[in-house]
Amino acid sequence: MPTFETLARAIERVGNLQASATYQEKLTNVIGIVVDSELPRATRGPDMAANVKLLDPSLEEAGPVELIVFSPSQHEMPRPNAGDILELRHVIVQFWEPPGALKRPQLFGKMSRPHSFGFLLYHRAAPATTDTAAALQPYQVYNAASVGGEEARQRLIEMRNFAEQMFGAGRAAHDAPTPYLRRIKELGPPEQPGGRPDPVDMRVQVLAIDQRASTEEVVLYVWDATDARPLAADLVMPASKYKQVDLSISRLCRRSMPLFSQPPGLIVMPKLPPFGTAVPVIMQPDAVPPHGLPPAGQWVKLRIVGLLAVQGQLQVVFGACSRLGLTQPATGFDTWYQTRLANNDTCEWPLEDTNIATRCSRPGLPLLTARQVLLRAAEQQQGPFRVQARLTGYSPQELKQWCKRDNEAEGSSQQQQWAWAASLRLEDSTGELQALLLGEEGTKLLGLPPHNLSHPDDVRQLQERLAGLSSVDETGGVWLEVALTVAFKEATSAQQSPVQPHVQQGAHQQQPEGQQSLRQAVQPQQVDQQKQLQNLQVQPVTGIAQENVAPSPQQVQVQQEQGQQPQLPLCSHNQAEQHDQERHIIPLLPASPSPAPQSLQQHSQEGAAGQTGEDSSLIQAAEAAARLARCVFILHDAVCPHYQEQQVSSAQTVQQQQQGQHQELVACDVDHRSKTQRLDSSEHH
């Protein structure tokens, strides 16, 4: 049976050896707790490499030591979970000095002959059995002729007690702070304007995997329950750089997480969390991990990833130098997230309530996120929904087109002949919505009556109002609290029968009930708005990716007449092109067996169940996506008090001016009459 050293003793002993020490003198046998690990990655040579950080009681103050393992086959390499116990045999202790840093120890293992390196992996907690021999059995072994022994048993018990003492039951074993680990809410541009952001590490959960354009890129949508910081659309933030290599991507566009799975190539967790930003992680083809991708629902640790800002959206770049490992959420995460859910804390931004420029006139409605609204709309719920969001885009781009002639308006006044008709892109931390601004709702929001906007001063005034409603600063910028209702466009035959996965012969699919036309879906008081909606010609905003701009009602009608299916506004890629492409689907790794917090086990289990491709769940997802494609959101009750005061003040000023002009005219008329009377009197005499 082997004899063991503590990690600190082995490092000290080898550090005191002479330079002429032999290979055998640098070997040792140690046992430690896995603090962190990475999945195998490719190297410049024929081998794969994996990094594992180990800790034992002797290094409690100094911190963990890193183990690097090389192997020609990734299947035999150790794949521990955080908190597991790793027994190393005939591992080499060496020292290396990275550029600009102090010399530090490192453990080295080579999984090929003639090297004698071996390992045994044990679960963090002993199995629930009274059999002592079974409690000592590892779940992964490589090149170990013997298992167990009295010393190994004592060391294993010591490591399990140490893990319980250090981290506690149910806690993650990797909560030691690092200078590079960041939460999503902490990501943003550097302090120096125009500077490059430093690469960061992230501990996140995978919500969705998009491989529909895997020949160009693979996108993971990741989440840690925090909200990304609002960024200005014109923010210039160059790509991060690591060792003189740019962490950049070839396709710069906004990306929105799809809400439903669409095989092949698109996998989404069936039950998405309601709060928190889903940040896109873009992998170029040469940077995709060779061992496969983590499944939806799995927590991962991303290392050495770069940051980008694309049209105001934060994106993460996974480059050739980046690394990925399976992990678990941090200590206390479950408690914190449950508290946020209980408090219905839909937005972590803005930091001040004074940043909310408009207030909804129906405060009794619960606040929802954009993701919740979209999911409820896919279930054919019509609202109203109360949300807080930012104005990040609009159409038509030419502001003079925002007012349309209302030919059916009663009366002959100039104000009644015009009506507001525009489309706004509203965005919160969870997603974006395209909402129509129609009729009197435009007057409430903008504080301006509808009128002919052909004069440059009128356009400039409208532009100033929109700029004031969409500004961004370090506290989160201006936010709008609005109410939204949903109308459903009539479904074409293609929409009523969306593309379905293969089902067993004889399987029957029922059409969704309760489908209504656009006019039938809205309330009676919205009929006037529907007349304006039918005449509205919405154009995409310049600089916004086409796949993220909802089609206008007129475009939808044209597509329906041509037998086409309107595209889903939240799709992250051009589906029409990708359906014709031959996709290369990258295999997914099995989910981590380590226990997760109770509230997250359901998410992870449902995410893993989504990988099985059950016919019923895929059919339901296809139907929900088709319903969401027919949704039209209409904005209500967005009253801006500041602009309303300006409107009242402006109206009072106009009234005073009109009264002054009237008094001047009366005075002039009286003066004219007196002069006329004097002239007539003189002529008479």
List the helices and strands and how they pair.
Layout: H1 7-15, E1 27-37, E2 41-42, E3 48-55, E4 65-71, E5 85-96, E6 104-110, E7 118-122, H2 132-135, E8 140-142, H3 150-167, E9 200-210, E10 218-223, E11 240-242, E12 245-247, E13 266-268, E14 279-283, E15 299-310, E16 313-318, E17 323-326, H4 333-342, E18 356-358, E19 367-368, H5 370-378, E20 385-395, E21 403-405, E22 418-427, E23 432-438, H6 440-446, H7 456-469, E24 479-488, H8 493-496, H9 518-521, H10 527-535, H11 553-561, H12 575-578, H13 598-611, H14 615-629, E25 631-636, H15 641-684
Parallel strand pairs: 4-6, 14-16, 18-24, 19-20, 23-25
Antiparallel strand pairs: 1-3, 1-5, 2-3, 3-4, 5-6, 5-7, 7-8, 9-10, 9-13, 9-15, 10-14, 11-12, 15-16, 15-17, 20-22, 20-24, 21-22, 22-23, 24-25
Helix pairs in contact: 5-14
Short characterization:
With 685 residues, this protein is an alpha+beta fold. 25% of the residues lie in helices and 23% in strands. A five-stranded mixed beta barrel has the order 1-3-4-6-5. A five-stranded mixed barrel has the order 9-10-14-16-15. Strands 20-22-23-25-24 form a five-stranded mixed barrel, surrounded by four helices.
